[in-house]
Design brief:
The chain is globular and about 50 Å long. The longest helix has 14 residues, at 78-91. The protein has 2 domains: 4-119, 3-Layer(aba) Sandwich (Rossmann fold); 124-227, 2-Layer Sandwich (Alpha-Beta Plaits). It has 7 helices and 12 strands. The chain is of the alpha/beta class. The strands form 2 sheets. It has a 6-stranded parallel β-sheet with strand order 3-2-1-4-5-6, sandwiched between helices. Strands 7, 8, 9, 10, 11 and 12 form a 6-stranded antiparallel β-sheet that branches. The protein is 29% helix and 26% strand. The protein has helices at 12-23, 35-41, 57-62, 78-91, 107-112, 121-133, 211-219; strands at residues 4-8, 27-32, 48-51, 70-73, 96-100, 117-119, 141-144, 147-155, 176-183, 186-188, 201-207, 226-227.
Amino acid sequence: MKQKIVIIGGRDNARFLAKSLLTQKYHVTAINKDYTCCTSLAEIDGLEVIHGDGTKPYVLEDACVDQCATAIALTHRDADNLIICELCKRQFHVQKTISLVKDPEKIEFFKAMGVDAAVCAVSTVTGIIEREALKNDIAALLPLGEGRVSVADIPVSADAAISGKSLSVITFPADTVVGCIIRNGKSVIPGGDSVILPGDRLIVITSNANSTNTIQALTGNTAMPKVI
């Protein structure tokens, strides 16, 4: 019997994660209060999609969250993610809860509140950058499911097609996620309303098969950026 996993919230992150989990033969349900996002998620074969606010118990009940082994909260608000995990764990008795956390200082608090795993993209991506910086820029591929993905550091020039645009209006190739924006030496967790500025560096996670398309879409050329 397939293990059931529910993903609540998120945009590109939810899409990328759902496709990965489905290839690993999990039964996956996605809950999202953004109708446009639900429409996009519904294009994924085998994914059950529910339009609704995952912080509401009746929405979780309709999604049969009590039958899920794992709940993953990916909304852009830490408070909402904590509420979702608390509801899933205490009211619906989900065995494992995982939350995305924007503020790395909240990780220990989330764990103290009973969240099984709190993941901060800033900490994760920064750790990757710091580790790989010590390897003399040797390219590394990270295994994911049955395929492989690359994590690329893509600089944004003033004449880049994406410069001055928000992430919500940029069309990305399939299996591509902007995990972090490096701006003036600081890490910024992107949201749909984040505007890409000249001089930014995008930490992009993409499938190896789509890396060329991703680079061309973001920079206008196919020159290989630094892969970390």
